[in-house]
Write a structure and sequence with these properties.
The protein has 179 residues and is of the alpha/beta class. It is built from five helices and four strands, in the order H-E-H-E-H-E-H-H-E. It has a single domain, classed as 3-Layer(aba) Sandwich (Rossmann fold), CATH 3.40.50.720. Strands 1-2-3-4 form a four-stranded parallel β-sheet, with helices on both faces.
């Protein structure tokens, strides 16, 4: 997703193998904390912007023209709940994920007239084995289960979601399940 031509080639292979791309889920991204803004290495800033925001632009360039031609499609981006408010030591990550939210809103405004939905989810820390290993003593009660994220993304990929185009949905904690 960091190399525009590789992203375009991957989208073309998917189209050739499976047919039209009706749903694009931009789940690529990365996290790194770092020093204060005034001490931030340029490489950290650029890496967070590239992994989290530039990847969205590259996939859009590769997939959206086909959606416009068909006058239909759904794009679901993954931002982060952390993007709602600045946090010490997380400037590059927060700015990059906030860029994903702003790209989502902009794309929704641009693509809705073409029948294309664009929205995003903003989970808290995702409850994965990697995150549990990296933070073994953390309180995981507000972490977002991957299956819950997938459920919301599936809804956003449905025709019923068009009314919500441009949305940014914060996801936090475990969903309530009635017995």
């Amino acid at each position: 997703m960091l190399d525009e031509s590789s992203t375009a080639a991957a989208a073309q292979r998917a189209h050739t193998t499976f047919g039209a791309i009706d749903v694009l889920c931009n789940v690529a991204g990365g996290f790194a904390s770092g020093p204060a803004v005034h001490e931030m290495p340029a490489a950290l800033w650029q890496r967070m912007i590239d992994l989290n925001a530039t990847s969205v632009v590259h996939t859009a360039k590769a997939v959206v023209p086909g959606m416009i031609a068909r006058r239909s499609g759904h794009i679901v981006n993954v931002a982060a709940a952390a993007s709602i408010r600045g946090q010490a030591g997380m400037a590059a990550y927060v700015a990059a994920k906030n860029a994903v939210v702003r790209l989502t809103e902009t794309m929704a405004a641009e693509l809705r007239p073409h029948g294309i939905f664009v929205g995003c989810v903003m989970p808290t820390i995702i409850d994965t084995p990697q995150n549990r290993g990296a933070m073994p003593s953390a309180d995981t009660s507000q972490w977002t289960p991957p299956a819950a994220i997938a459920d919301i993304m599936l809804f956003l990929a449905s025709k019923d979601a068009m009314i919500m185009s441009g949305c940014a949905i914060a996801l936090a904690g475990r969903p309530c399940r009635n017995a």
